[in-house]
Amino acid sequence: MDYKYIEQLLESYWACTATEQEERILRTFFQQDQLPPHLHRYRSLFAAEEQMASTRLSDDFERRLLAQIGSEATPCRARRISLSHRLRPFFHAAGMLAIILAVGMAAQRTFEARDERAEERFSEETAVPLDDAAVLQPSQQQAAAQSSASAMDTLTTAGHDHEAESKQ
Amino acid sequence: MRTVSFQDDVLPLKDKLFRLALHITLNAAEAEDVVQETLIRMWQHREEWPALQSVEAYSLTICRRLALNEAARAGHGNVTLEEYDEPAADHTPFDQLALREQMALVRRLIDRLPEVQRTIMLLRDIEGTPYADIARIMQLGEGQVRVYLHRARGRIKRLIEETENYGL
User: Which of B76, B97, B123 is the last residue before a domain boundary?
Assistant: First the structure.
C-alpha cells in the first residue's frame, strides 16, 4: 500500500503547515491497529494526545459550580425571541378585544330587536285611527257638527256687527 | 444580535478549560479550582458576552492567566500528570504495554516543555484550536505561534526517534 499521502501530511504536520482538516486525517489514520513499521513509531504521540483529549472534570463539578454562582444562572437563560413572539401578548389582547366587541355588538342588536318588537306590540295595542269618525259616536258627531255650526254663526254675526258699527 | 447563554455556550467549555489549566498547573485539584474561578468570572462579566468575538478564546485567556498565577503561587516544579492516568488493565498484551509506556514518555516530555510551547501544543493538537484563536489567547502573532509549535513538535519527534533507535 502507498503511504506517500500520509507521509506528506506528516511532513507538513512537523512543519506546522498542515490545515486542521489534514491534521484530522492524520489522527484518524494513526488510530488504526495495523500501521506500516516506519509510521508505527509515531503512533504513541497521537495516542497520547487522544488520551489527553479525553480528560474530563469530575461529575459533580457542574452542580458545585451552579451552587456557588447561585440559582440565578439556571433560570436566567438567554433566549432568542422573534418579533412575532414578542408581539404575541398584543395579539392576545387584540383578539380578546375583538371577541368582547363582537359579543357586545351582538348583544346590543338583540336588545334593540327586542325593544323594536316591544314597541310594535305597544303601538298595536294603543293604536288610534287618524280619522275622527272612527272614534266619535253618531250622536257625538251630531253634537260636534252643531257646535261647530253655532261657532261659525257666532263668528259671522260678530262679523256683521263689526261691519254695522263701522258704517255708523 | 447573537445571544450567548451560560448553560449552552460557556458551561460546555469546562472540560477544555480543565485540560488547559491541568497542563499549566500540573495538578488536578488546582486545575479544578482554576476552572471554577474562570467560570465564576465569566458569569460576573456576562454583560460583555455579546460584544466578544469568541467566548471560547476569551474564557481560555482568563483560564490561562489564572492557571499561571496558581502555578506561580504553588511554586511546584515539574510534577508530571501520571497520577491522573487511568490505571492499566491487569492483562495487557505486550505491544499494548509498550504503547502505554511510550505514551507516558510522550506525556512526560510534553509536561516538561516550556509553558508557552506546552500550552500552544495543547490548544492545537488536543483541542484543535485554529491558529488565529491560539494567537489571540496567547497574545502572540500567528507566525510566533507556529514557531513555538514547530519547536514543541520537533522535540517530541526527536524523542520518539531516539527511543526507537536506542530503546527505552
Answer: B76
